[in-house]
Amino acid sequence: MQVYKAPLRDMRFVLHELHGSAELTALEGQGELSADLIDDVLEQAANFTETVLLPLNASGDLEGCHYENGVVRTPQGFRQAYDAFREAGWNAAASDPAYGGQGLPASVYKLVEEMICSSNLSFGLYPGLTHGAYLALRSHGSQELKDAWLPKMVEGRWSGTMCLTEPHCGTDLGLLRTRAIPQGDGSYSITGSKIFISAGEHDLTENIVHLVLARLPDAPKGIKGISLFLVPKFLQDADGNPGPRNGVSCSGIEHKMGIKASATCQINFDAAKGWLIGEPHKGMRAMFTMMNSERVSVGTQGLGVAEAAYQAAVAYARERLQGRSLAGAKYPDRPADPIIVHPDVRRMLMTARAYTEGCRALCGWVARALDEHELSPDQQIRTAAEDRVALMTPIVKALFTDLGFEVANLAVQTYGGHGYIREHGVEQYVRDARIAQIYEGTNGVQALDLVGRKMSSNFGRPLRSFFHPVLAFIDANLEDEALADFIGPLAKSFGTLQQATAHIAANGLRDPEEAGAAATDYLRLFGLVALGYMWARMAKIAVGKRETAGADAAFYEAKLVTARFYMERLLPQTGALWSAIRSGKASTMALGEDRF
Amino acid sequence: MTNGKIEKVAVIGAGVMGAGIAAQVANAGVPVLLLDIVPAGAAEGGDRSAIARTAIERLKKTDPAPLMSEKAARLIEPGNIDDDLARIGECDWIVEAVIERLDIKQALYAKIEAARRPDAAVSSNTSTIPLHDLVAGLPETFRLNFLITHFFNPPRYMRLLEVVAGADTDPAQAARVSRFADERLGKSIVRCKDSPGFIANRLGVYWIQAGVVEAIDLGLAIEDADAVMGRPFGIPKTGVFGLADLVGLDLMPHINASLAKSLPPADAFHALNRDLPLIGRMIAEGYTGRKGKGGFYRLNTANGGRVKESIDLATGAYRPSARADTETLKEAGRDLRALFNAPGPVGEYAWRVMGRTLAYAAGLVPEAADDIVAIDDAMRLGYNWKEGPFALIDRVGAAWLVERLKAEGATVPPLLEQIGDRKFYRVENGRLQFFGLDGDYHDVVRPEGVILLEDIRRRSQPVLKNGAASLWDIGDGVACFEITTRGNSLDDQVLDALDRTIKLVARDYKALVIYNEGRHFSVGANLGLALFAANIAAWGEIEKLVATGQKVYGALKHAPFPVVGAPSGMALGGGCELLLHSDAVQAHAETYAGLVECGVGLVPAWGGCKELLVRWSAPGKLPHGPMPAPAKVFEMVSTATVSKSAAEARDMLILREGDRVTMNRDRLLADAKARALELVEGYTPPERVEIVLPGPSGKLAMMMAAQGFHKRGIATDHDLVVADGLADVLSGGDADPTVPAAEKDVLRLERETFMRLARTPGTLARIEHMLLTGKPLRN
């Protein structure tokens, strides 16, 4: 039996206390937002995910999706759960009111997403992909296309996909072959094969809207010759309802390691009718709008799984009785002490907790930037927020998914042999979490994005959106003795990050392979410092509140202990990473290819 | 005396070229008489010299400025041919720059012959008429003293001077004019034979014509054509069509016709010289290039927009300019052979235009020039090519070129056959040598008294070197510090090399020259590095760089040996501060110096504020009292003033009394070295001085001025923030005007203010904008 209770107290802490929810009301269209309203949304989401989605997580994993004659059936109960999800308005929650959405800011909705991912990652992919397609279409589509397709997608009656990958091209999209031929009536005829299409075909919605990357006849070679098209499963009839079947078919689904309840499809386009989104040959730009948001969402998947795995590990560590505490029996009346007394089990639980809460806080910081970029009335704030989103997106994606997998693994380890068997459902977290490190750009690609594009863009301007606030925070609290144990380690690791950044910028300019060899270590170093920044800020709040918190004091005490654990036991990894980075590419690249 | 000095010059013909030549003579400090005809219908009592007078007024307003200073303008005296021709008797050299008509020129020569001094040189600025035609029928005394001096437009800035001596020209007279043009006017002399179009235009016109015709034939967009014909060959990015716009489309048919008329029938130019209806139509409609309504490119400002447009060669209609397709260029990289061989229209265009131009160049020796060096020099100096055609042939391989020419049945010039698989240039025992017509290699000989670092680099090793700078032994106990970074920008490595240089020169040398042969002496501190450091909040690193710069520049100033700064081109910010810490400056006339830090939201902090305060506080510069000097420096620095010449830099006290100007770029190092050696005897380093600064009341006065500009919309919001910082430094902060401040106090204020401003978002935005666009941000 999987267990999961949405961590509402911590979520409220992140939203209201750490990042301040009152400021959200200053954003455009958010005047009505109040703390009560937010808490209400979070509670409803908690209730829905705990009671509707969680029970389907293990069963969906066991049963998987079914493919027969071009038709894909989702596991038992998914259809009903999806209908309930849609009827409760969750599809529309974070979308533009102009198309029927409720306009919840990302700061709130990312928490809902986390709950969905904790309770049922596979399920979350169906509405998640739709939201990504919605974003690309809303930002780049013509008004006509938007009016025709967005309302039903926002409502959740129609779902969306993104069709990028082809059998011979994954990361390197410049190689893709799917063709689009103009038909003279404003539409295009799309032909080609796509693979690994999440939610490409299923039985949850009346129609499926594919966003497809393809080449026009006069397209330049490579990545600069790719355009984006909207290609529906069913064309609309005169009333805007699903009409004739388009030339889109599903020729099979993949058999995967995890997220088995999510249909991963092979989709064939055979002279399918489609419409251009945005300008010709500018498809990658449109796709990236969606990809940035999707990458933060994938990071949230890592966070969601980590939270669920952590809770499972805690539950088991409390009830499993094995051995005695090294400090002498803690529960002499029982046959053995619960394993939570053992330092090494503690190490695993504290690590999981510190990472998970740290990621939640950082996710909130980035979500706030997403909101400010989209909704702030102040141009300067919008630009700074855009920089922060751009900088932090690869970090959130790669760090959160790597840590999500790590925490899921720690949960299995806490269970021992019982984690390795199916009964408790913990090994599913390992399998489910694994994909998040791969899709939407592998974590290696994220690291290259960070050291290549983000670091060099505008002479490092995106970096400013992180380095300046962190240094300002350090400077402002350096003298506060109550915070010395937190600010000290943060300042030290921040200095290390500055050195590593300057080092990679200088060496990478001279030799791009140097940057490439350092990239993954650097991303982790950056991520750990970012979590350190969050933990120091959380510690500052906890120090200020614990005396007067009354019944809530335990929450702040726990925060401080976890913050201390992070600073003392996890953040020091930055030193080792810096050593590795400084050693350069030589030993990585020295071995001849034929020696492998 | 045909070898006497030239102390006064007459220029006849006050058109663009004549006036420009007169301006450059005046820039050299030599008085010049500028004559033109009496305007038709000049009223009784009206100004009979109006044409020359108007031309002088126009010189003062032209951009880029033909005149280097106001003083130079006063050296040009206007006159007219009818009343003042007799006055050419005062002149040692008479330059004719009238309309390109043989009859008019010859009639004028007859008058000149009557009025000139017997030893005066006469030269024509003709670009199309052969010398033997010009002197036909004129007396021997005239022919003896006559030559062609062909300047390029604009005469101040184009370094090429083509000199043609006729069969009868007295070599001493030609040498006299050449020496004056070289040393005083700063021109590089290329001796040409008396053949049509001389060298640069003969080849340049062929190249442009090929570029236009082949783009039409191949259906290539002009952006793509210019992208091929520019950077890959080391040619300015204007390529062919952009250059035609600059020169003026209306000139093309005239030049082509006159060249075609005088070239032998077998010349390859005839095959290219066809009538182009598109160009005829453009000229008729006023699209004559940048001076007209636009040319092949134009800026369409209709409907309030600013859209760069290009002409479609097929339809003749304008369309929005597109980014050039540079895929082929990228693939070929620096490999010209790969570019010539590249499949598709881009490669084909490269070959048809440049392949043939190179072959044409090879055919010009010995017809138009005695050796290949003259041809390469002419194209480098007259068309701003980085390398001349023969250096380009060396890159492609002469043998390969011959093979390809033969493959398409083209004639192969004998010189190309002769050289086989050898190169036109080689370095032998550290000396650059060229391939002569005799089949042997000969040293490339520099004019007497020229020292080039380029040559020193070939034959010796640097005394000291790192990734950003080198130190060279230039003989006679003098060392030369050369910055080698991009734009010669300054970073921690340059400072480190300079620091080590100071110690080494103190031990092993008598004097130091700071000089390089880049386009710019130094564009200032490397802002990219600084901005990156600021973005990652590495304030400690930035502060260290500022402090190190102050320390090293201070050590340079107080070193136990004389230091001569020898700038050419831009000397901005930290580059200007290098000059301010030198004992003397030997400046190329084209020196553009200034403290421009405020433009990027900073203040000079490597001692620039301090040095200018010291210079302007020196007795006799300004009225007494603590206020005038800071106010003057504030005015210059807050507006990021840059001199438009060495003469203007002198007005700013970047050059001081005793500092000298070199007109010829190639003579700068030799002059700087000589100046350094002059200073060695009895040298004592300057002492540290104290400066009386006005303190808070002075700051208030400066800020009132700045706020006035702000109210009038001339200064921006962030200008005020920066001005406030600068006023802090220049007023001495909370200095007491009765107690002189030490240099180190001003240096401390420079550092503190710099660091304060570096942290402001407005300054970071300015730096970023400058780096990305090359233009200042007015925030």
Automatic annotation (TrEMBL), chain A:
It comes from Pseudochelatococcus lubricantis. PANTHER family: ACYL-COA DEHYDROGENASE, BROAD-SPECIFICITY LINEAR ACYL-COA DEHYDROGENASE FADE5. Residues 282-449 form the Acyl-CoA dehydrogenase/oxidase C-terminal domain. The keyword ATP-binding does not apply. The lineage of its organism: Bacteria, Pseudomonadati, Pseudomonadota, Alphaproteobacteria, Hyphomicrobiales. It comes from the Bacteria. Keywords: FAD, Flavoprotein, Oxidoreductase. This is Alkylation response protein AidB-like acyl-CoA dehydrogenase. Residues 470-591 form the Acetyl-CoA dehydrogenase-like C-terminal domain.
Automatic annotation (TrEMBL), chain B:
Residues 8-194 form the 3-hydroxyacyl-CoA dehydrogenase NAD binding domain. Residues 197-298, 351-406 form the 3-hydroxyacyl-CoA dehydrogenase C-terminal domain. Its EC number is 1.1.1.35. It catalyses: a (3S)-3-hydroxyacyl-CoA + NAD(+) = a 3-oxoacyl-CoA + NADH + H(+). It comes from the Bacteria. GO terms for molecular function: (3S)-3-hydroxyacyl-CoA dehydrogenase (NAD+) activity. InterPro entries: 3-OHacyl-CoA_DH_NAD-bd, 3HC_DH_C, 6-PGluconate_DH-like_C_sf, ClpP/crotonase-like_dom_sf, Enoyl-CoA_hydra/iso, NAD(P)-bd_dom_sf. Pathway: Lipid metabolism; fatty acid beta-oxidation. The keyword Isomerase does not apply. Keywords: Fatty acid metabolism, Lipid degradation, Lipid metabolism, NAD, Oxidoreductase. Signal peptide: none annotated. Pfam families: 3HCDH, 3HCDH_N, ECH_1. This is 3-hydroxyacyl-CoA dehydrogenase. It comes from Pseudochelatococcus lubricantis.
